[in-house]
Amino acid sequence: MSDRIIRSLFEARLKAWADTRAPKLVIAYEGVAFTPPAGGDTYLRAYLMPGNTDSEDLAGKHVSYRGVFQVSVITASGSGTGAAGLLAEEIAQLYPNNLALTKADFTVYVRSPMATAASIQGETTSTLPLSFQYRADTF
What we know:
- By secondary structure, the protein is α+β, with helices and mostly antiparallel strands.
- The protein has helices spanning 3-20, 82-94, and strands spanning 26-29, 43-50, 63-76, 100-103, 106-110, 115-116, 120-121, 125-138.
- The chain has two helices and eight strands, in the order H-E-E-E-H-E-E-E-E-E.
């Protein structure tokens, strides 16, 4: 199933960028054991939220994969929105609208600009969710 390929393409791009930052940002991946960094350091959470797979031809050869990729920036509560907002801008530049990412003969496209949702305040953390829609078609 191509959701696995889509996830790998988006996550690899995010990891390559996070590894170049100083200090390096760690990423919590969906379904992978994770311990948040000590001391309230900033980190990221990555989610792939696939929609219903579809087919738009009578022969059934076309398959359309659509969904949402979300990256959440997690900072310490009470630290304000400035640092998370700056990271959000950098992450949005990683995934511009119409970006094509390819692995073998499979290509997925970013189909919307990165959107920022309202920050979610927890007892010890603040979470800033960012997301975009994607689409991939096979024939």
